[in-house]
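Following up on my earlier thread - several people asked me to post the actual chain instead of describing it. Fair enough. Here it is, all 179 residues.
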Amino acid sequence: MNYQKGFAHAFLIIGLVVALVCALGFVYWQNFIYKEPTRTELVNVPSKTQEDKKSSNELKAESEGKFLPINEWGIKLDSSVVAHLEYNISSRIGGSQNTEYDSLGLKIKQSSVENQDCVNFGADLYRQKVATEFDSKKIGDYFYYVTGAPGQCSENADDLKLQQTVLDELRIDNISKLD
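Reply from S.P.:
Thanks for posting it. Predicted structure:
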């Protein structure tokens, strides 16, 4: 007697279902989960020589009397080295009063310094709607203040002069309403 009727079909159907699930799983993994590594090309960039670099005094003379517009806040920062500055803005909540404040991270452009440690120099401009314990200046609805603990970023004299100029000019006295 033969008792094996229909089992071959059941095994074949189960095998096809498993193969279909595996194929669909692989397609899903390939399209939505797996991220192919991006390929980057290395480019040789020659370093600046002393002849190519301008001294801080030359840079200051070239950009005398300029200001950095901070359009997002409607203010400007008077600075003699505007051509070498960039910034990013972030919003936070904190402090003793748990107040909302905005932070402007002023940076020296990478192309302006030899030592990249000088790009972020440790002092920022802040604004908030309530008075602060820091020496501040009110413009419009906000109180503006500068705080941070910058340190020496390089042993390169030109980098240090640029850093010092930026720090000297990053004062609330140099902040005014954007025209």
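Residues 56-177 form one domain. That should answer part of your original question.
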